[in-house]
Amino acid sequence: MVKIGIMGLTGCSGCQCEILNCKDALYKLLGKVEFCYFPLAQDNNSFEEFDILFVEGSVTTDLDEEKVKKGRKVSKILVAIGSCACYGGVQAQRNDEVTLEEMLKEVYGTTEFPVNVSKPKAVSEIVKVDYELPGCPLDKKQFVYAVAFLLNGVKPFFPKIPVCHE
Ligand code: SF4
């Protein structure tokens, strides 16, 4: 059984929802995939080892960084999914426009925040990324193809797709 993990960092969870939209197809088509870590979708999760770990969201908090570093250590293949994970996403657009303090003050009315927040970063700025599936959200067909390619030991190839698409 190929062990798959789906990890969410800072993002809107839209990419994970796209995966949920094709989860049944994956089980039906491939039949040898186990989602051993997918907190958005299931209660029982194991974080011990992954053949393929898909990571959604940008690295924006200390917790994000800790999670993705731990995920990299226990994964054979790590795939960044969605524009947040591949490029930093919409939240990274503020990086050159306002300071972190200005942003916190504007959004929350205070610079005090319960977690340590930093500039949103692409996953590849923190750990080695083997493949990237951009898109906002990612294209669910590309996700299914990626799993199929990787299960068969084939390097995935994907055409560039628009940042926003149906
Ligand atoms: Fe949400 Fe888009 Fe980021 Fe995916 S890439 S988590 S859909 S904002």
TrEMBL record:
Q: Is ATP-binding a UniProt keyword of this protein?
A: no
Q: Which part of the chain is the NADH:ubiquinone oxidoreductase-like 20kDa subunit domain?
A: 12-148
Q: Any idea which UniProt keywords this protein has?
A: Oxidoreductase, Ubiquinone
State if Transport is listed as a keyword. Answer: no
Which molecular-function annotations from GO does this UniProt entry contain?
iron-sulfur cluster binding; oxidoreductase activity
Protein known as: NADH ubiquinone oxidoreductase 20 kDa subunit
Q: Which residues of the full protein are shown?
A: 1 to 166 of 261
